């Protein structure tokens, strides 16, 4: 085979075979196909697309390019969860102990944040002592022992995807739905779960700005998972404003703890309850959604979910005193309140730009080597459709440098809009595909 022939074939709109895709991914991963030829292939795919079979074969070739985790040693149906990312998305911190407390084994690999979106690993590592560096054996043993473990992604998990994503990132070929779907699902399939729940965000703070595009992406991922023999559910959820009230690593950990105590913000609580319920159904613990919701609310009310979170934190070296007493967490030195200069109703909060506020403060990474300040961020007092009076507190900014706080305040004000007329509260759950 020659890469030249495959590029020409795809450029002309023809379908690549399984053997051709397997050969291409293997040769590129091993360094025998140069970047410039793979760039040409990615561009041809952007223009011509991939059919359902091509997308599946590309996903499997990338998944099998490295380590395929074998979770058969873990008892029960393993249900994984993936979010396409957003601002204030601390969902895994509250979700995983809830479902683990109800008998669903959670063996999850998570990543770090880059840009305006936060990473689960960064949030967990803001708990003093918490380690996400586990061996495969430790990972499996912990899930069998307490029902939940979260570790950082291994270097050898879908290495072809890492190479391809880095290439797509600099060649303007990121936003092709089949390539996005295969990138996400290659890692999920390599991670070894029996069932996968997808939280696909849509809105100003999400990669997929329009709901129609989010639905297309979700459907492609569900189709890939089913073709690979996995049970699949995708939930399309709102990211037109930040999730919950807190943005920033320690601030989000505190909000997750509040939620496990039954005191979380309404939108975040609704999301966690919905996702947890679908995980219970995927794992065979509940047959009906309403029954699953009831189970989720009971395990929170009885304190079992919070107890599971503490057990999970302790198992990975974290200091559980911070869970019992969140006031022990490090707090930023510079605290600035933002108050309304007018009366009306919150009209729009640009989620992506609010994420940039946290980035300005030092709460996110501009490059992979950037150091994160876990104590900085912001906490909202008002969300979309809330009434506002002149002088009302809109948000509180937490930072450690006066100049960065000043810049973040200015950026916040430019992206938080108040109008005379009240809007409807945003709908958190847009659609469910299964």
From TrEMBL:
- InterPro entries assigned: Glycosyl_Trfase_fam3 (IPR000312), Glycosyl_Trfase_fam3_N_dom (IPR017459), Glycosyl_Trfase_fam3_N_dom_sf (IPR036320), Nuc_phospho_transferase (IPR035902), PYNP-like_C_sf (IPR036566), PYNP_C (IPR013102), Pyrmidine_PPas_bac/euk (IPR018090), Pyrmidine_PPase_CS (IPR017872)
Q: What class of enzyme is it?
A: transferase
Q: Please report the stretch or stretches of sequence annotated as the Pyrimidine nucleoside phosphorylase C-terminal domain.
A: 345-419
Could you name the domain of life of the organism this protein comes from? Bacteria
Q: Which UniProt keywords apply?
A: Glycosyltransferase, Transferase
One Pfam family here: PYNP_C
Subunit structure as annotated in this protein's UniProt entry: Homodimer.
Q: Which PANTHER family match?
A: THYMIDINE PHOSPHORYLASE
User: Its biological function?
Assistant: Catalyzes phosphorolysis of the pyrimidine nucleosides uridine, thymidine and 2'-deoxyuridine with the formation of the corresponding pyrimidine base and ribose-1-phosphate.
Indicate what this protein is called per its UniProt record.
Pyrimidine-nucleoside phosphorylase
């Amino acid at each position: 085979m020659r890469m030249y022939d495959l590029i020409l074939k795809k450029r002309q709109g023809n379908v690549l075979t399984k053997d051709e895709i397997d050969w291409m991914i293997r040769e590129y991963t091993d360094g025998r196909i140069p970047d410039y030829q793979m760039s040409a292939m990615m561009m041809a795919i952007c223009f011509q697309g991939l059919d359902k079979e091509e997308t599946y074969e590309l996903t499997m070739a990338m998944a099998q390019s490295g380590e395929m985790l074998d979770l058969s040693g873990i008892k029960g149906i393993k249900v994984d969860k993936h979010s396409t990312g957003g601002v204030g998305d601390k969902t895994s911190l509250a979700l995983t102990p809830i479902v683990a407390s109800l008998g669903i084994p959670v063996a999850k690999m998570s990543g770090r944040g880059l840009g305006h979106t936060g990473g689960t690993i960064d949030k967990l590592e803001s708990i003093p002592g918490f380690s996400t560096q586990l061996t495969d054996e430790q990972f499996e043993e912990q899930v069998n022992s307490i029902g939940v473990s979260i570790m950082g992604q291994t270097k050898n998990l879908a290495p072809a995807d890492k190479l391809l994503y880095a290439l797509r990132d600099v060649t303007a070929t990121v936003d092709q739905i089949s390539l996005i779907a295969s990138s996400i699902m290659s890692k999920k399939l390599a991670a070894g779960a029996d069932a996968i729940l997808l939280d696909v965000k849509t809105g100003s703070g999400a990669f997929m700005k329009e709901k129609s595009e989010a639905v297309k992406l979700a459907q492609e991922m569900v189709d890939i998972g089913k073709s690979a023999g996995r049970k699949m559910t995708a939930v399309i959820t709102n990211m037109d404003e930040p999730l919950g009230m807190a943005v920033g690593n320690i601030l989000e950990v505190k909000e997750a703890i509040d939620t496990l105590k039954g005191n979380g913000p309404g939108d975040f609580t609704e999301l966690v309850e919905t996702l947890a319920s679908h995980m219970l159904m995927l794992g065979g613990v509940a047959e009906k959604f309403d029954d699953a919701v009831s189970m989720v609310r009971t395990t929170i009310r009885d304190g079992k979910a919070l107890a599971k979170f503490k057990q999970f934190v302790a198992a990975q070296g974290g200091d559980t005193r911070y869970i019992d007493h969140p006031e022990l967490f490090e707090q930023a030195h510079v605290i600035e309140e933002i108050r309304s200069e007018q009366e009306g109703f919150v009209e729009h909060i640009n989620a992506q730009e609010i994420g940039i506020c946290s980035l300005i403060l030092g709460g996110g990474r501009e490059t992979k080597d950037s150091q994160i300040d876990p104590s900085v961020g912001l906490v909202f007092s008002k969300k979309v459709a809330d009434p506002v009076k002149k002088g009302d507190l809109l948000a509180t900014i937490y930072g450690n440098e006066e100049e960065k706080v000043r810049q973040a305040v200015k950026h916040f004000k430019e992206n938080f809009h108040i109008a005379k007329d009240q809007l409807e509260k945003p709908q958190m759950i847009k659609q469910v595909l299964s």
